[in-house]
Design goal:
Structural class: alpha/beta
CATH class of the largest domain: Alpha Beta
CATH topology of the largest domain: Aminopeptidase
CATH superfamily of the largest domain: Zn peptidases
Strand order of the largest sheet: 3-2-8-4-5-6-7
Number of domains: 3
Distance between the termini: 30 Å
Shape: globular
Strand content: 15-25%
Radius of gyration: 24 Å
């Protein structure tokens, strides 16, 4: 849709002056130790107040794991390493036999725990991999991640060495606990040491593993509850001030983290300035928040906010927009834009309005980033921002990473000022600003739940086909088709009722598509399949033992009940609003 005169008023006010100053300052500040994170929050608050923008600063205690140092000693050689946050700290070392394990690198990046997806045909059964891994230190190509760490631990491994793909070692995390733990989460705290090494050293370790060599892993991390600052700006709307759009990103980073995420912090700073200055032109409110604990707490900052303000988010938040890694060098493509189905058209149209010749492709967000709001049920879009065109990435010989616009400086000490590009940052800031405006100022909330129903129908058909006749999902299909047909009636509903129904639909349909846990809890940090309660239908042919096949059928029956009940509830909601 064309940019309106009212939107142009906001966009023309965007400048690089304030945000680029923050990028330059943050390029000199390491931001992963708690005291440094709080100091950088003070910088943010100072810049906001200096621009005349009021800001509230929360100071919760959140649970963090701070990695300090690590090493691997094998064959008389000590190799440099980095421990991911939440790895078991063993400063005195843990020794074991090295065993190599080969997995699909793309599956490792997806945080997948499915053995078929992880290993393809190279591992035939869990028993086989347990026999290989049990009592040993596993050496694997790729990035260490939470799903893999939890599996190696379950299979009896005593340590994990992740061989990164390049000459640098990337920081990361290895816990499946999302945010600060509660009593149910504590059992999933990693109980093995994990380290990452660079590729040249990793190849030597893989060779030693092939010869049956041993290694000693040493890791040094600190864990505990730390008071961390969460700055939040609220720009009030003039018509429905209680309703709001949440735009957010993390301000803690590995090292100085310019592309991940100083550029995002600068974007949020400029959005705050422009929106506050022009707040008389807002229908609904906009909240802008900066999170600590993204890197060392597995999204502990955004999770605390979700928990502490859950009821307000449930009642009043109409959408969340995540801002991570905008404005990086060479990042001129938008082919990896993340959005829920109901929000995809918003993301696509906004990008094309700001960058008319952009390559745009939207896809399902992974269970990652600061998407700490799925269990409440917020319509969502964006995660990582613009990225490098695939042809250019391959030309440069860059492997795939999860940020920095595809620059392989991601999560390393090389993510410094040259990773940011002011011209690209200016475009991305306008994309985020226009995205917030399109929701905050829409008379009717612009979410396409018919597109979500289409996604559900595609997923149901996919699972049905994969089940090889062992599952009958026809009742799920019928319920979804009935909901989609009912949605057409909303067009004639009174605007207030229509908006209330559009908001409430998200509270029903987002959790059923993105979560296994109950609302107001947080799913573990590994891959959540589409319509997770129905996903077992696709796995039925893999259960060869009669007992397990019957157990899986019980799980599917319960999953179908949850799904159909949710869809029926959504249909009743739509029909009531349409009367």
């Amino acid at each position: 849709m064309p940019i309106s005169e009212a939107e142009r008023r906001f966009l023309d006010d965007v400048s690089l002056d304030l945000p680029w100053g923050l990028v330059a300052t943050f390029s000199t500040l390491a931001r992963w130790r708690p005291e440094d994170v709080n100091r950088s929050a003070d910088v943010l608050v100072q810049r906001l107040r200096g621009a005349g923008v009021p800001v509230e600063v929360h100071e919760p205690e959140i649970y963090l794991s701070i990695p300090y140092s690590a090493s691997v000693t094998a064959g008389g050689i000590t190799f440099r390493a980095k421990p991911p946050s939440s790895a078991l700290s063993v400063p005195g070392g843990r020794t074991g036999k090295l065993v190599p394990l080969k997995a699909n690198p793309k599956a490792l990046r997806s945080y997948n725990r499915d053995i078929k997806t992880l290993f393809g045909g190279s591992i035939s059964s869990v028993e086989e991999v347990k026999a290989l891994v049990g009592g040993n230190i596993v050496v694997m190509q790729g990035f260490g991640n939470p799903a893999l760490t939890s599996l190696i631990e379950e299979w009896g491994g005593v340590g994990l060495i992740a061989v990164n793909p390049g000459i640098d070692i990337h920081w990361g995390t290895c816990t499946t606990i999302w945010g600060s733990p509660d009593l149910q989460d504590m059992g999933r705290k990693p109980k093995i040491p994990v380290v990452a090494v660079n590729n040249p050293d990793g190849q030597k370790l893989l060779a030693m593993a092939a010869e049956g060599g041993e290694a000693t892993i040493r890791t040094d991390l600190g864990e505990g509850w730390f008071k961390q600052k969460i700055p939040v700006v609220t720009i009030p709307g003039t018509v429905e001030p209680e309703k709001f759009v949440l735009v957010h990103g993390h301000y803690d980073s590995w090292e100085v983290g310019v592309g991940d995420n100083a550029t995002g912090d600068a974007t949020l700073l400029e959005l705050s300035r422009v929106l506050w200055k022009n707040r008389d032109g807002l229908r609904r409110s906009v909240k802008i928040a900066w999170w600590p604990g993204h890197s060392t707490g597995r999204y502990a900052g955004s999770t605390w906010f979700t928990d502490a303000f859950a009821l307000d988010l449930d009642r009043n938040c109409v959408a969340q927009i995540n801002c991570d890694s905008p404005g990086c060098r060479w990042a001129t493509s938008y082919h990896d834009t993340r959005a829920f189905s109901e929000s995809a058209h918003i993301a696509e149209s906004v990008i094309h309005d700001i960058v008319p010749d952009a390559v745009v492709r939207t896809m399902r967000p992974p269970h990652a980033g600061d998407y700490s709001f799925n269990n409440i049920g917020l319509p969502s879009f964006f995660m990582l921002s613009s990225t490098m065109p695939e042809a250019l990435r391959h030309e440069k010989g860059y492997y795939d990473v999860s940020g920095c616009g595809a620059n392989i400086a991601w999560h390393t000490e090389n993510d410094t000022l040259e990773i940011a590009d002011p011209e690209i940052l200016l475009k991305d800031m306008k994309i985020y600003l226009l995205s917030a405006l399109r929701i905050a100022n829409a008379e009717i909330l612009p979410f396409d739940w018919g597109a979500t129903c289409d996604e559900f129908l595609e997923t149901i058909a996919e699972y049905q086909a994969a089940s090889n006749g062992l599952a009958d999902l026809s009742d799920c299909k019928a319920a979804t088709e009935a909901l989609k047909a009912s949605l057409a009636k909303l067009a004639d509903a009174e605007p207030t009722k229509r908006n209330a129904a559009l908001q409430e639909l998200s509270r029903i349909l987002v959790p059923v598509n993105y979560t296994r846990e109950a609302r107001f809890r947080h799913d573990p940090a590994y891959t959540v399949p589409k319509l997770p309660t129905l996903a077992v239908a696709a796995d039925l042919p893999d259960f060869t033992a009669d007992h397990l096949k019957r157990v899986a059928q019980v799980e599917l029956m319960r999953g179908k009940n949850r799904y159909i009940a949710a869809i029926d509830q959504a249909r009743r909601l739509v029909e009531a609003a349409s009367q």
